[in-house]
Specification:
The complex is a heterotrimer of chains A (about 180), B (about 70) and C (about 425). Chain A is mainly α. Chain A contains 9 helices and no strands. Chain A is elongated. Chain B has a single domain, classed as Alpha-Beta Plaits (2-Layer Sandwich), CATH 3.30.70. Chain B has a 3-stranded antiparallel beta sheet with strand order 4-1-5, with helices on one face. Chain B has a two-stranded antiparallel ribbon with strand order 2-3. The longest helix of chain B is centred in the C-terminal third of the chain and has 10 residues. Chain B is globular and about 30 Å long. Classes of the chains: A mainly alpha (about 180), B alpha+beta (about 70), C alpha/beta (about 425).
Chain lengths: ~180, ~70, ~425
C-alpha cells in the first residue's frame, strides 16, 4: 500500500506538471486572439480552463497521496507553509509555493465574474511565476528529477513556454495587431 | 423572451469569442470589435438576443476574456 | 480654424435689444452685492420639489449641448432618490467644463456672473433634496468661482473642482468620474446617472448656463421666461461666436434666426462661406435662412448644440477645415473604446486624403464605410458627434468634394497634388 501511494504521488505530480505546462501554453495562445486552424477561440479558452482544473485535480492527488505515504509523511503545515519540510526543505518548499499559487489561481479563476477583471488579472499574472517554480520543484525534489529523460523533457517544456512568452512580447502577437497599427499610423 | 446583450466598450478588447458564439448576431469590424448585425433603433451597444441565442449569449458573457458583456432582460 | 483654446476671449458683447440681456444684467465681474441689487434676493426656503413642475412649464432645455428638457432630469433624479427617508441623498453638479475649443460662453458666464450659477445650483439642490453640491469648472474660471463661493454664507457646502481641458471632460459620466476618481473619462452606462452616479447616489449634472436660467426662472417666474423666444424654444441662450469675425459671447432669444445673430455679431454676410453650428460635434450650414432651436422641422431649424457659431470665410475650404477638426477629435478620443480609438484616426486619415491628397474617387465611399463602423459604438457620443460633423461636411461641401476629387480646390484656388 505504501509503495502504491509513493508511486501514485510521483506519477500524479508528473501528470500535474505536464498539464500545467500545456495550460500555460494554451493561456498564451488564447490571449493572442488567434484560433488554431479548425478550433474556435472559445474552445481554446474552454480547453485552457478544463486542463487547468484537471491539473489541479492531479495536484491534489499528488499532495494527498504524499500526505498518506508513510515515507514522505507530508504534514498539513508542509502543504501550506513553504520551506519547513524535513526532507530537502528548499525544493519541497518550492512545491508548496507553487501549490499555494495554484490555489489562488483556481479560486480567482472560478470567481472571475464576482471579483472583477482587475483582481483576476493581477492574480493570474502569477501563472508565469508558478510554472517555473513548479518545474524547479520537480527537478530538485523528484526521484527522477535529475534523470536524463526528465531533464530532456523539462528542457523541451522550457523551450516551448519560452518561445510562447517571446511570441507574446512580439508586436505581432495580437490577431488584430496589424489592422490596429494601420488605423493609428 | 428576448434579452439585451450590453457591450461595455471601455472593457471590450475585440478578442472575438462572442462573435464566434453568436455568429448570426455579431460580426467583427476592421479592428476585431463586435459589430451588431441588426441594430434595433440604431443601438449597437445594447444588442437584442432572441430565445434561440440565449444559451450562446450566456456562454459569451461567461467566456469573454475582458468581462465586457452583460445580459439583462429586455 | 486651427483648433486652439479661446480661453482669453472674455469680450462680452451685450446686445441691447428687447429682453436679451438677462444673464449678464449685473454687468462684468459682478460681485454678490451687485448681483443681489440687480436680480433681487433669492428666497431659497420657498423652493421645494414642486419647483420641478415650474421648470416643466418654463420649457427650459439644457444649454450644454444635448438640449434635454431640464425638468425631466430633475424629476428622474428625484425619482432615483427612492423613499424619502431611506433613499440616498442626491448629488447636483454644475457642469462648467468647456473642452469644446470654439466655446467660451460658460467661462464667460462663470467669470462675470458666477452668483447666478450658484443660485441655480442651490435651487436645483433644494428641488431634489440634494446633500452634495459641486461646481465643476474650467480652469479659466476657477479663481472667480472660488471667490464667489467663498463670499457667500449659503454656498458653504458647495465644493469646487477643476475640469481638465480635454474635449470630453464635460461629458456627464466623465464629470462624475472626475469628481469621484479624478479621471475625467466617460464611463460605461448600464445605469443612468440619475439612479447611480457620485458614490452610487442619484446624480444630476446640469450645464452652468442652464442653472443660471433656473436662477432667473425661480425669481421671475415662468411667464417672464417664456416672454422671450418662441413656443418651441423659450428663453434666451448664450452663443460663442468666433472665426472670421470678432470673437464674442452673445445672448440671443430662443429660435433666433442665424442671419440676425450674425448681423448682431457684426459679420458681413457676403464674407461668409459657411457656418459651423454647435461646435466640433455640430454641423456645417451654408444658406443662412434658418433658426437656432433644439426642436423643429429640419431644413429651417438647426440645433444649436452648446451654442457655438463659427464663421468660415469665403476664402477658406470647408473640407480642409473639417479634416483638421476631425484629426483633432481623433486625438481627443479617450482611447477607451476600440471603434472610437481606431475608427476616428482612420476616418481622419481618409478625410485628410480627400482634402489634401491625390484625387481618388473611392475615398468618399471608404469614409462612409468607416463612419458606419464607428457610429453608436462607444461609452459616450464622441464618435457620433464626429460622424455628424463629417456627414454635414460631405453634404454642405458636396461641390468642394467633387472639386477635390477631380484635382482642384475651388475655394483656395489651388491645384491638389
Amino acid at each position: 500500500m505504501d509503495n502504491a501511494m509513493w508511486a501514485f504521488g510521483r506519477v500524479s505530480g508528473f501528470a500535474s506538471l505536464a498539464l500545467i505546462t500545456v495550460s500555460v501554453l494554451l493561456g498564451i495562445l488564447t490571449r493572442s486572439g488567434r484560433p488554431p486552424p479548425g478550433i474556435p477561440r472559445f474552445s481554446i479558452t474552454l480547453i485552457h480552463r478544463n486542463i487547468s482544473l484537471l491539473a489541479t485535480v492531479f495536484l491534489f492527488l499528488h499532495v494527498g497521496s504524499l500526505m498518506l505515504d508513510s515515507y514522505a509523511k507530508l504534514t498539513v503545515t508542509d502543504v501550506v507553509v513553504p520551506f519547513l519540510g524535513a526532507f530537502k526543505p528548499f525544493w519541497q518548499g518550492l512545491g508548496t509555493v507553487a501549490f499555494d499559487l495554484v490555489l489562488a489561481l483556481m479560486v480567482t479563476g472560478l470567481l472571475r465574474q464576482r471579483i472583477g477583471q482587475r483582481t483576476f488579472r493581477a492574480v493570474h499574472w502569477f501563472s508565469y511565476a508558478m510554472w517555473p517554480i513548479a518545474l524547479a520543484h520537480a527537478i530538485g525534489n523528484g526521484t527522477n528529477g535529475t534523470s536524463k529523460w526528465f531533464l530532456v523533457m523539462a528542457a523541451g517544456a522550457g523551450a516551448a513556454v519560452g518561445a510562447g512568452v517571446a511570441w507574446r512580447l512580439s508586436t505581432n502577437f495580437l490577431e488584430t495587431a496589424k489592422a490596429r497599427a494601420g488605423a493609428l499610423r | 423572451m428576448s434579452q439585451i446583450l450590453h457591450i461595455d466598450w471601455t472593457k471590450c478588447d475585440g478578442r472575438g469569442l462572442c462573435t464566434e458564439l453568436l455568429p448570426t448576431v455579431l460580426g467583427r469590424d476592421d479592428w476585431g470589435y463586435p459589430l451588431a448585425k441588426y441594430a434595433r433603433g440604431g443601438d449597437r451597444t445594447n444588442v437584442e438576443i432572441g430565445p434561440r441565442d440565449a444559451q450562446a449569449a450566456r456562454d459569451a458573457v461567461s467566456l469573454c476574456p475582458k468581462l465586457a458583456l452583460s445580459l439583462a432582460p429586455q | 480654424m486651427t483648433p486652439q483654446r479661446a480661453a482669453s476671449v472674455f469680450a462680452v458683447q451685450v446686445w441691447d435689444g428687447a429682453a436679451s440681456n438677462q444673464l449678464f444684467a449685473a454687468g462684468t465681474n459682478a460681485t454678490f452685492d451687485v448681483h443681489e441689487q440687480t436680480f433681487g434676493p433669492l428666497s431659497l426656503e420657498t423652493i421645494g420639489a414642486d419647483f420641478i413642475s415650474v421648470l416643466e412649464q418654463s420649457g427650459l432645455t439644457g444649454r450644454g449641448g444635448a438640449a434635454f428638457a431640464s425638468w425631466r432630469k430633475l424629476a428622474a433624479t428625484d425619482k432615483g432618490r427612492g423613499g424619502a427617508l431611506l433613499g440616498a441623498k442626491p448629488v447636483v453638479i454644475a457642469n462648467g467644463a468647456e473642452g469644446e475649443p470654439l466655446s467660451f460662453k460658460d467661462k464667460t458666464l462663470l467669470t462675470h456672473a458666477p452668483h447666478l450659477v450658484i443660485d441655480g445650483l442651490l435651487i436645483a439642490g433644494r428641488a431634489v433634496s440634494a446633500s452634495l453640491l459641486y461646481i465643476y469648472t474650467t480652469p479659466a474660471a476657477m479663481a472667480s468661482v472660488q471667490a464667489a463661493v467663498a463670499g457667500r454664507r449659503d454656498a458653504r457646502k458647495i465644493k469646487v473642482t477643476e475640469a481638465p481641458e480635454t474635449f470630453i471632460s464635460g461629458e456627464a459620466s466623465a464629470v462624475v468620474n472626475s469628481i469621484v476618481n479624478g479621471i475625467a473619462l466617460p464611463l460605461d452606462k448600464r445605469r443612468r446617472l440619475s439612479e447611480s452616479g457620485v458614490k452610487g447616489r442619484p446624480t444630476l449634472v446640469l450645464n452652468v448656463e442652464t442653472l443660471a436660467h433656473v436662477a432667473l426662472i425661480a425669481r421671475h417666474g415662468v411667464g417672464w421666461f417664456r416672454s422671450v423666444g418662441s413656443e418651441r424654444d423659450p428663453g434666451t441662450r448664450l452663443i460663442s461666436v468666433s472665426g472670421h469675425c470678432a470673437a464674442q459671447v452673445l445672448e440671443v432669444e430662443g429660435d433666433a434666426s442665424l442671419a440676425s445673430i450674425l448681423g448682431r455679431a457684426g459679420v458681413d454676410r457676403s464674407d461668409v462661406g459657411a457656418i459651423l453650428v454647435g461646435g466640433y460635434h455640430g454641423q456645417w450650414v451654408r444658406p443662412l435662412d434658418c433658426t437656432l432651436s433644439p426642436s423643429g422641422a429640419g431644413g429651417q431649424v438647426i440645433r444649436p448644440g452648446a451654442g457655438v457659431l463659427h464663421v468660415l470665410s469665403t476664402g477658406d475650404c470647408g473640407l480642409e477645415a473639417t479634416a483638421r477638426i476631425l484629426s483633432y477629435l481623433a486625438g481627443e478620443s479617450a482611447k477607451q473604446c476600440g471603434p472610437c480609438m481606431f475608427g476616428l484616426p482612420a476616418m481622419a486619415r481618409v478625410l485628410n486624403e480627400i482634402a489634401y491628397g491625390a484625387p481618388d474617387p473611392s475615398l468618399v465611399g471608404e469614409l462612409q464605410r468607416l463612419g458606419n463602423l464607428v457610429g453608436g459604438r462607444g461609452a459616450c457620443h464622441h464618435p457620433d458627434g464626429a460622424l455628424r460633423l463629417v456627414a454635414s461636411a460631405l453634404e454642405t461641401f458636396s461641390d468642394d468634394v467633387q472639386a477635390h476629387l477631380s484635382g482642384s480646390c475651388t475655394r483656395t484656388l489651388r491645384r491638389i497634388a
